[in-house]
Amino acid sequence: MRIMIPTALAVCFFMANAALAADSAVPTVKIGVVDMQDVATRSDPAQAARKQMESKFGKERQTLEKQGEDLKKKAESLKSAKTSEEKKLDFIRAKQALDQKTRNFLRQVEQEEIKLRQEMMTLAFSASAEIAQAKGFNFIVDVTAGGVLYADKPMDLTEDVLTEVNRLYKKKDAEKPQDERKSDKK
Predict the structure, then answer these.
(1) Which domain does 17 fall in, by range?
(2) Overall domain count for the chain
(3) Which one, 21, 34, 89, 179, has the greatest CB density within 10 A?
(4) Average pLDDT across the chain, whole number
(5) pTM confidence score
(6) CA distance 104 to 131
(7) Cβ-count burial of 72 within 10 angstroms (0-12 exposed, 13-18 middle, 19+ buried)?
(8) Is residue 22 left, alpha or beta, with left meaning phi > 0 and alpha meaning psi from -120 to 50?
(9) What is the DSSP letter of 138?
């Protein structure tokens, strides 16, 4: 009888352990990877953003570059010992003015880039979520963010996300009022 009680307890403990292990089985996790850098450079909204930035800031950038080149030439002519202090002061003022214009220009460009980047990321996140739900993925990881050293080809959803970003962008663009679409293309 003394042997039966510990044996019965051991059997009960073993059965309870097996039942708990079956209940706490780890669910299957499906993880996908996306190269967001690739999406951010090849997608339709990224290309449209580049065109928009060039049309909005291209002329001003060229003007600032030309003014910079002119100042460099002027600096070369000021190296002469015969150059008056007045000309040197004029050069310094012109350089400071150009530096200020350049800083303001770069600030404007940066603000616009941030806005466009946020719009792009919103599209990319929406596209990733839709692809994940449609294909049954639990997680999607950005390969460019680091940490992923290898992923099987079936796990790479970059092309799917790229296609979905382009679809969402076209849908969003089609929903804009006509006059807004024209101003974006300029």
Answers:
(1) 4-185
(2) 1
(3) 34
(4) 82
(5) 0.67
(6) 41
(7) exposed
(8) alpha
(9) S
Token pair 């940066």: residue: 110
Query: What gap in Å lies between CA 124 and CA 158, rounded to an integer?
Result: 10
Q: Which two tokens stand for residue 170?
A: 């076209």
CATH number of the domain that 160 lies in? 3.30.910.20
- Residue 129: CB atoms within 10 A of its CB come to 14
Question: How confident is the model over 133-167, as pLDDT tens digits?
Answer: 999 999 898 888 877 777 788 888 999 999 999 99
**Letter for the amino acid at 131?**
I
Listed in sequence order, the DSSP H helices in 24-151 are 36-42, 44-77, 85-135
What span, in angstroms and rounded, lies between the C-alpha atoms of 107 and 119? Answer: 19
Q: How far apart are the first and last CA of the chain?
A: 93
Question: Cα(70)–Cα(138) distance, rounded to whole angstroms?
Answer: 58
Please say whether the beta carbons of 33 and 155 come within 8 A: yes
